[in-house]
Here is the input.
Amino acid sequence: MVRLTRIYTRTGDDGSTGLGDGSRVSKSSPRIEAYGTVDELNATVGVCLQQPGAEPFRDQLLAIQNDLFDLGADLCVPLSAPAREGGPGPLRIGAVRGARLEGWIDALNARLEPLQSFVLPGGGPLGTALHVSRTVCRRAERCVVDLAAREAVNPQCAVYLNRLSDLLFVMARVAAGGDETLWTPARDDAPDAGG
Here is the structure.
């Protein structure tokens, strides 16, 4: 259990922050960008939970919020960090998390009509909030992929975020209840485009 007895420490006033292994890095480092974006994603999921109609997704969204804290903890401790003597190893997420999301995707997607085009973000307050979470999730995934190109990262972090963005998309479609606007491509260079 984590105990927070003091909120401000002043140790980050110089633009650095501490990682889970005790080392310090710049607050602008790719690792901080990655787990900071995961934290932002978690906050957007919290916004989804506050929307009308969120109750059917409540248990899943709360589980996702906990997963995202675990994912942030995973990213906070570099894979190269030595194990602490006498204590448990760093928290690492495993493939079971992504598999659970896949099960939820399959169950929800079975209720939907197949898509004929891309969906414009919308579908009421909950659908829109879920689309916002989806886009932040994609950004978090890009941050993790960028970090992984620079240093070793648990590959399940990116896998989880990839599955989660798919789940958030399907949840947004379910929340829209069929009230979706499909993308209609318009070509400005078409002969009948006017001009």
Summary: The chain has one domain: 26-79+93-176. The helical segments are 30-49, 58-76, 95-109, 124-150, 155-176. Residues 26-79+93-176 form a domain with the Hypothetical Protein Ta1238; Chain: A; fold (CATH 1.20.1200.10). The first helix runs from residue 30 to 49.
